[in-house]
Amino acid sequence: MLDFMDYIQLAFAEATVWNRDNSYSSLTATAQSLLDFSTPERLRVHLSSLSTPHFATSYTLGTVGLIDGSVSYLFSTAPLDNTPSRSALIPLRKLSPGYRQVQAPIAPPTTDTILDDASPNTASPNNDHGKKATLFHATLHLPPPSTLNALFLRRISPTMQLSLAVCSTRGPPLSKSAPQASLLTQLSHNTGKYSNEYLFSTDNALFGWRGLWNFGPDPRDARASPSRLSLLSAGAEAYYSPVSSLIGMSTGLRFSTLPAATDVPSSSSSSSSSSSLSTTTTTTNANPISTFPYTLTLTLTPLTGSLSTTYSLRASPNLAFSSRFGFNVYSWESEMVAGCELWRKGRRNVVRDDDGVEWARRKIRDSVFPSLGIAARPQPQEKEENESVLKIRVDQSWNVRLLWEGRVKELLVSAGVGLGPSSFTSSSSWSNGASGQSGGGGGSAGKSYWSGVGVSVLYSS
Fold it and tell me: Where is the signal peptide (predicted)?
């Protein structure tokens, strides 16, 4: 489950019309959401609040032998009025990423206009004062030695965004050494047709570049056809550190169906045509082009010889599958991972907040209905969908993870368990160019099993 501050940062991206899918770093985001989810390893409680449309706070308390926690603050110049902040109202699919439907590339705003008060989350990357949209976020992890994580995000123009991330760790209490700090600077240029990201880290003076190109019509061209059924994207990344002589690179492809490929066209769209043409169009487009949305990716890391392919499929709105096969040409080792997610919908009664005129509605019901000889019927409580999701992941070594996330009363709860050999290592090492899984307990690797159970609880107001 995403942290509350990560959820607010995603809301900031939506409010400032920034397409996070149009990036090489998001090339395999769909498969990662289904296969690389993490399970809680202990009891952790989160108390969060979006006290104003511009300011959010979050407090975390965890225990694993010793009690630790964190304090987070976030400020956004762009108003987040349309962002649900109560844990009872936040859509669970926003906090528990699953199958990620890639959207068609869109052209960024062409002018720096002021946000429209009527729809503050669907306008331009400027706030209501005409300034560039800016976000500040800081998290302090306690107890000592404490770590401070800070983020500064600013939209320079409709197509460019600047990000500064700082991580500072204080030494032991008796140490007089200066805190260890590192700064990561990222400049993103997103035109819809392509995107470029330029990175620099003070850690080993690392320079980096990432790029993504979308095949097909340019969304900035007004004459381009807006109806697209699929999207093919190609990208690459490269890193170099003159201090440590570190070089890294990778390249990848992504093919994904777009919502237009599975949506059934509305019959009202052809109402302006003649009756014969309308009948022909409706009959032809009665069925979607593709039965199930799916995404395929291929990534290659030449220096380490790692090759990885993924296939993700959404079989229904509540069921999705994903698989990944990795192979290393130097060590001849391979990796196979499969996973799925199952969503369950229920109905629950929810009492909405009083909007200030509920007393007037009750007075009218109590006075009008009896005068007409009709008994005033009690008003039922409003109902909402109560969703929950179960995620399962298993690899070729029979390392299994199970994660359940859902609502319990007014709380958002995430509970998970992991089972597998003691030599288990995360499959995410493949994305970093690892040649294979590391050995663990020697001859007992196939017999010794570990288990971990954790629960994370979120309450926000």
Answer: none
* Cα–Cα dist 252/302, whole Å: 11
pTM greater than 0.70 (yes/no): yes
Per-residue pLDDT, 20: 86
* 326 located within any domain: yes
Domain residues for 259?
Answer: 4-110+120-263+290-352+380-437+445-460
Position 318 confidence tier, pLDDT thresholds 50, 70, 90: very high
Specify the CATH number for the domain of residue 186. 2.40.160.10
Nearest partner of 166 among 152, 178, 154, 153, judged by Cα? 152
What are the pLDDT digits (tens) for 176-196?
666 688 999 999 999 989 999
Phi-psi region of 229 (alpha: psi -120 to 50; beta: other; left: phi over 0): alpha
Q: Name which of 150, 10, 154, 175 is nearest 70 in CA terms.
A: 150
Helices H, strands E: what count in the chain? Answer: 6, 19
Could you give phi then psi for residue 389, rounded to 5 degrees? -135, 145
Q: Kindly state the tokens that stand for 54.
A: 């511009």
Which class for 347: exposed (0-12), middle (13-18), buried (19 or more C-beta within 10 A)?
Answer: exposed
By percentage, how much of the chain surpasses pLDDT 90?
43
Write the burial class of residue 343 (CB in 10 Å: 0-12 exposed, 13-18 middle, 19+ buried): buried
CA dihedral 301, 305, 311, 312 (to 10 degrees): -50
